[in-house]
Amino acid sequence: MTALDLVPGDGLYERAFSKLLVARKGQRSQLQLLGLRLRSRMAFLRQPTGLHIFVVTLRCEHSCPYCQVSRRSTDKSRFDMSEETAMRALAVALSSPSKGVKIEFQGGEPLLNFGLIKTVVAAAREQAPTAGKQVDFVITSNLALLDDEVLTFCRDNNVHLSTSLDGPADLHNGNRPRPGGNSHELAVDGIRRIQQELGKDRVGALMTTTAASLDRVEEIVDEYLKLDLDGIFLRALSPYGFAIKTKQFAKYDTERWLAFYERGLRYILDINKRGTRFPEFYATILLKRMLTDRPIGYVDLRSPAGTGLGALVYNYDGKVFASDEGRMLAEMGDAAFELGSLEEDDYRSLIVSEKLTNIIGSSLAQCAPQCSSCAFEPHCGSDPVFHHATQADYTGIKPLSEFCARQKGILKLLINLLENSPEDAAVLRRWAAQ
Ligand code: SF4
Hints:
- The protein has 17 helices and 8 strands.
- By secondary structure, the protein is of the alpha/beta class.
- The protein has one domain: Aldolase class I (TIM Barrel, Alpha-Beta Barrel).
- The protein has an 8-stranded mixed sheet with strand order 5-4-3-2-1-6-7-8, sandwiched between helices.
- α10 packs across α17 and α16 (402-420) packs across α17.
- The two termini are 39 Å apart.
- 43% of the residues are buried.
- The model has no long low-confidence stretch (mean pLDDT 91).
- The structure holds iron/sulfur cluster.
- Iron/sulfur cluster binds next to α16.
């Protein structure tokens, strides 16, 4: 039957059979079931491209040293996206096959070009029914410029807001300088106002881990709890933009990051075990991969990669990139992820471009060296931008890859908790099921 000498009735055979690992000779049902599961896990491929990022300005009034964007000072209006460019970007977004289209406004600080955001939202709402699309909107903002006009607009147009919150005031303000040194105060005020006036679910926050964060994970988590946010995403720094120029990326290694992550995850699990539902979002994504066959929407952890197929980025100047990080690399002089321009290209020419085809072709973890024989592969993904930025190779040399080391560290931690700690496992399973 198989080369493993399993015999029906020996117990091991039954376990392997229930996991679809073995079948009797000629039995097709096991293979059909496996095919169904794979089709479900890869369903994200049926409807590309769901996320469309409009970089409406490069201007920003913050000067964060870890910033992944090459920001410009606020007075340089030549770094704003024009209405003509925005309308071309909207036409591309609405011609992608995905029924659900999410338009995310980024910068710089996008509220510095709020007039254009209003124009795009109005045009998208008008054109979406004809295009047969359901359109959602997100503004990614530091909230320093949040005022009554922005709030009213977001309420009337069902716009979500996403912001940065790195932890308590001294840590956040140290990471995110602005004139007046009050970035934390403005972000917290903004989060509270949005929660009160639009609803708790209309604002989310993201943190970035700097060297100054490493010993303070409990305080960071407490800050999120204090603000009644619905969970936290413990995020490492990325090797792009100002994080490289200001040498922030080199300030801690994978081992220190993993120690920070494990300490944070265990602290969060304890909070959950005491009755407060508060997930860590990266673990939740991986757990859904491990414990369910649902497709993963997260574009940075797919195979084939989500670059271009999951998200397109329209820069202020009309250039189109396969990912936000790819745009940041271009600001550093590396155009590897620049797919074309809104003046010359449409959705099809961007997606079938030779550049993107090469990137996607190199990004299949299922057949990549090391990954193809790795026990974690079904739960992992690929990140061609990270590997190109750090190793000049889209696939990546995994034994030398920090992405791989981080994935292995976190997946081992989760498997260990699932296997050996029933109370933690119960919380993790609840996160996966949500
Ligand atoms: S853990 Fe590393 S080797 Fe394994 S699939 Fe992920 S990236 Fe590939």
